[in-house]
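Justification of resources, computational component.

The compute hours requested in this renewal are based largely on the per-chain cost of generating structure records like the one below. Each record pairs the submitted sequence with a full structure-token output. That output is archived, and it is also reused by downstream analysis tasks.
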Amino acid sequence: MRSGSILGSVMLAASAALLVLAGCADRESSTAERPAAAPEIRKTVALVGGTLVNGAGEDVVPEAVVVIEGDRIACAGPGADCGVPDAARVIDVSGRWITPGIVDAHVHFSQTAWADGRPDALDVRALYPFEAVQYRQRTMPERYFRSYLCAGVTAVFDVGGFPWTWTLRSRTEADVFAPHVAAAGPLISHVSPPQWVLPAERKIIELADSESGRAGVRYIAANRSDAVKLWFIAPTDEMRTEIDARVRAVAEEADNYGIPLIVHATSLREAKVAVKAGARVLVHSVQDRPVDEEFIGMMTASSGEVLYMPTLTVRGGYVRMYESALTGEVPEIDDPNRCVDEDTLTKIAESAEAREYMRFGEERFESYAARAAEAYEIMVANLRVLHEAGATIAMGTDAGNPLTVAGPSVYTEMEAMQDAGMSPMSVIVAATRNSARAMNREQDMGTVEAGKIANLLVLAADPVADVRNFRQLEAVIRGGRFHNQHSLQRPERGAH
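The structure output for this chain reads:
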């Protein structure tokens, strides 16, 4: 147990029974083959004495009280407004900060955080057959569930994957050992990497023409999807008018079915087309040039209806994977709380042995890295401009892409957003309330207020001073269940 742990010195004697229950539950959560959480009766718990950061951007509340009844927040605010019920088990969190759970609104369970999940980037199918990779992704998502909770992520949005990703929604909704999951299912795109195609499964619905796009939306709607995801790669000059028309057809059909539209558009021109067509979320930043007044106006006129999700750090993972393959040096993984699963770490270490599968040499790598660095500078500048203009920013990591690992990648992304010029409080709002809005769950998560699901974090340092303090995570509360962060960590090698 770490020095200063909440479950040590700060827990009051009145909550000793809760400690026993939480410890048993946490030991269950560390097992690889843990069954789905059974329904249970959870009593009233009160967190008292901590500083409340509610996720809505409001002033912090010192010496706050948060009352949890079952899986919901009953009251959150000053002690004068939130009395502690007589029957409540009390946890003293004095000297700590209480925040909403982090929401990562851009993840991919079909991907592995290494090359075997993206054979179009580094084709290691000779070592890891893609059909076998996808079988493991589909049948063993629990390792990612633990990684997310371990890092303080209590909800995620899978914004593009094989159809089986839809099943994760019902599987996780009531599971206090997993984040809530929303899912968009297969992407719609005029680009379809052949390496992603399996004999009986597709990750891409091909946008061959407008009618195929509409048919794709109807299929997605029939599966009660949480969104339609459009992968809008910049078309050739000759195809621009035609692809624009297909994009508008997809947007119109999504609107007909009342399904939000998420668009991957990394160039300014395509981003404008997407917003005009009705995109609700733009992912990956405008990265080809500075945003102009027209685009800024489009984003700020929406009054928060269109969200901008920068995903600043994901491309850097590709650079580091390629660099490792070229140099033979194992890439480092930023995992301060030992959250990343052993399987992922093992494969990432193999980046250093993947040189023979590279499609380019050192000179071409240097060109790729230089372009990535240039794009990053544009992305950072555009985020700063849009944020200062009043655009609504959400947070997503694109976890599952090479070296963008499930869980702790949120720290890197949030810190990059802060370094780009967003205040710590605005980053917190982006990673909680706004990301919950992006995954269509703002009504029951994303802020700490009465009636919402009790998804909370307890931190040992002030995140409003610096979002790097999310790394100092001591406890995660998911659906009212208290998890000591230490119990969620990856077991030490050789431990039993």
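The chain is about 35% helix and 15% strand. The longest strand covers residues 44-52.
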